[in-house]
Design a protein that fits this description.
Elements lengths: L2 H21 L6 H8 L5 H5 L3 H12 L2 H6 L8 H18 L1 H13 L4 H24 L8 H12 L1 H4 L14 H15 L8
GO molecular function: DNA-binding transcription factor activity; transcription cis-regulatory region binding
Pfam family, one: TetR_N
Protein name: TetR family transcriptional regulator
Length: 200
Amino acid sequence: MAQTETDMKMRILYAAKKLFARQGFEGTSVRQICEEAGANVALVSYYFGGKEKVFHAIFEHFFPGRQQLSGGEAAFAHPVRGLSLIVREITRFSLTDLELSTIIQQEMVLNTPRAEVVNSFTSPVWSMARSMLEQGRKEGLFHYESLDQALLFVMGATLAHKQIGCGRELLSLPNLLADETAEHTLHFILKALGAPGSPA
């Protein structure tokens, strides 16, 4: 594939990601995507086969779960390290790629026809978190009564900064720092689970 073709495809994906986050999938036309990308309107069909497939391609190119988490197989041999990797990466991702994390939130909250695509990328990550919680309890590393409730707590704490909405003025730092937030969130979760070595 020629470099110029690759560049154009990425320009279309970046443009679509920006517009989908700003005005929603339904509110964005192929023409708007191409205008934003500086591309011929026919290229969306030529490269991707339509707007729906552009949506899927955005996740294939930008969603971090498969790339970053797949590099941590050794961590998943230990429940605390495995869960820590998941919490850190999800928190960092949602604070650094605001466009894609906004798209995920929009599609899941509205339960759109594209929620299935979103779920195909996010569900394996949360399934791994569930496995880490289950394994950690068996090994006496985590202490909780209900696996479902523990998973909901981990998911809620990890994504809490996405839900603050109009309460953001209550925060001393309205623009949260990704690494700092990831570490604070992780410490909070590990302490609640009674993990060994978690802060008192």
